[in-house]
Amino acid sequence: MLSKNINSKMKKIIKSLGCEVYGIDLKTENRPKIIEEIKKDVTEHRILIFKDQGIVSGDRHVEISHWFGELESTFYKHPKSPHPDVFRVSNDENEGCTGVGRSGWHIDGTFQPAPFSYSLYHMESVPKEGHTLFIPLTELIERLDKETYDCWNRAWMVSDRRYGPIHPLIYSHPLTGKPVLCFHLGMTTSFIWDYKLPTEKIATTEEYEKLLSSINNKINQDNGKYIYTHKWESGDFIISDNLAVGHFAHPSTQAPRNQVGLRILHRTTIKGTHPPSK
User: Fold this and answer.
1) Residue 162 has pLDDT above 50, yes or no
2) CATH number, domain at 63?
3) Which domain holds residue 122?
4) Could you give the 3-state DSSP secondary structure of residue 259?
5) How confident is the model over 90-143, as pLDDT tens digits?
6) DSSP string covering 137-189, please?
7) How far is it, in rounded angstroms, from Cα 226 to Cα 213?
8) Whole-angstrom distance, CA of residue 139 vs CA of residue 70
9) 40: Cβ–Cβ under 8 A, 6 or more apart, which residues?
10) Which residues form the TauD/TfdA-like domain (predicted)?
11) Confidence check: pLDDT of 227 > 50
12) Nearest to 84 by CA among 228, 266, 271
């Protein structure tokens, strides 16, 4: 753990998810030992929120991302993006891509053969509102009743991208072996029951809508008790285990600039190396 090896501090376990990290300057940190500790801590805590980072340049954001693997950039390149591999989103179309992350709870890259392994976020311009919501996927699955678990465990999601891959809804995380979800509530064309088994069949429209509602309802159960709402502060830089954490952009992310101020979020994604499988 970082706090055991250098003069840094990790605090505030966020429910069962995440740690805030103080005392690390990501703009200059290059020590191999510390980078390895950061990678281990991301796997353990799933989200690391590095505080007081100031403004991290696009080039440096990409350098940090390379600690975790090969970048995979599959999104529209906004003219004001600071680097070709940095996805720039905003509440002002002149400043970044708008409407991003609002179609439903998801992990990033479900339309790829292997979803992205990590996502790295930096808020360059912080508005008064514009939160990002996170949910721990293992705990979500472990809280399911048997009937719901058995239903989800039979389902395979079909990406809405043409000729997109088919992924199991529930599978094992490639590093921890814990159960996680491959899902996108806004980018799923259909579900297939018992894929590649003799009982395989495509879900009916009613079954499809019922399953989407089931996932959404379980995430929001108990008034969203297990949802962590990250209220961005100046200098925040988040490294997330994309496969272990679902996320969703709060409606306020698209609030008008003249009401909440300018929101500019930079994000990179790391190419997945393990296609989800049973």
Assistant:
1) yes
2) 3.60.130.10
3) 1-277
4) helix
5) 999 999 999 998 889 999 999 999 999 999 999 999 999 999 999 999 999 999
6) HHHHHHTS-HHHHHHHHHEEEEESSTT--EEESEEE-TTT--EEE--BTTSEE
7) 17
8) 29
9) 1
10) 20-267
11) yes
12) 266
